[in-house]
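cron nightly-structures :: item 1 of 1
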Amino acid sequence: MMEEALRATVRRFVERELRPHLFDWEESGAFPRALYRQAGELGLLALGFPEADGGVPASYRQLQLLNEELCRTGCGGLLASLFSHRIGAPPIVLGGSAELRARVLPGILAGEKISALAVTEPGGGSDVASLATCAVRDGDHYIINGCKTFITSGMRADWITLAVRTGGPGSGADGISALLVPGDVPGLARTPLKKMGWWCSDTAELHFEQCRVPAANLLGAENAGFALLMRNFNDERLMLAMDACYLAQACLDEAVEWARQRKTFGKALVQHQAVRHKLVAMATRIEATRAFIDSIVARMDAGEQPVAQVCMLKNLAAQTMQACAGEAVQILGGMGFMRGTVSERVYRDAKVYMIGGGAEEVLNDLAAHQLGWS
């Protein structure tokens, strides 16, 4: 019953508050900040976080239902920013002091404050162990210098979970720490980035120049941030895989509806064998990806952390999304090339799912390593 109630709540939110405005938000490149509070009031931002921090404990299965319903919008960029706390806040939960958690997390989970994760650098990409942004201890503060890029919610974030090097040059993964940086810290400059897709998602480059952050904002132990971040990435990749699969479903739904209504050569598109075969091929990919997601969700709800399989799933789901978006645009024909259709939006968003959370090639290598093949 709880799952049914959750699905109904999210569906109402999508239909009333999101779907009617998506085109305008995409065209303007932003959505209202008030939307965070609306999602917070429904408990959607709190789902999956500890009750002590203002959250609502949830299984991976329940988070799966949340993602599936949200993806009915066909707008991955909206979800990336509105739920950026799903990658920004977990390190606070896992590594923050009781005082820091009490001060920061309730506001984030209520939608009053925005959380972002800043790991990627202009020269680093998926190679987290080589990051260069440094934090040097100075009494009861750290002084931060460096640059981060492609940061979701980077322009708006009130709290930035920042990966920094505290171990000195050449320290690799063993010299990385995580710091929680307030968005109003002096010395922080933000530059908005324009993207191929995810138009209404706030994405930025962040520049840190002599930023002083209290040492009490350290998440976990000094030089132990890499493990904290890696733990975060497994959940992020699962959520990206879910979104990719369910956005592919949104493309299929639109393509089927179009094929039933659109007539060519005296009959509906769906009556042409070539079109039916395209639709079945799309459905086959989606069903296979859904089954993989279900198996991973069950394993993670049982307490497992199947890193290799999550890497493989994320890659498979991204490929499913790209293939289905391409076929849907083809079925819609000229209309698929027009702004405002779900398929057009997902088509230009698809590539980021093959890069974000770890590029496809990096995840293949990570999976091989986890399986003992390298």
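cron nightly-structures :: done
The chain has a mean pLDDT of 96.
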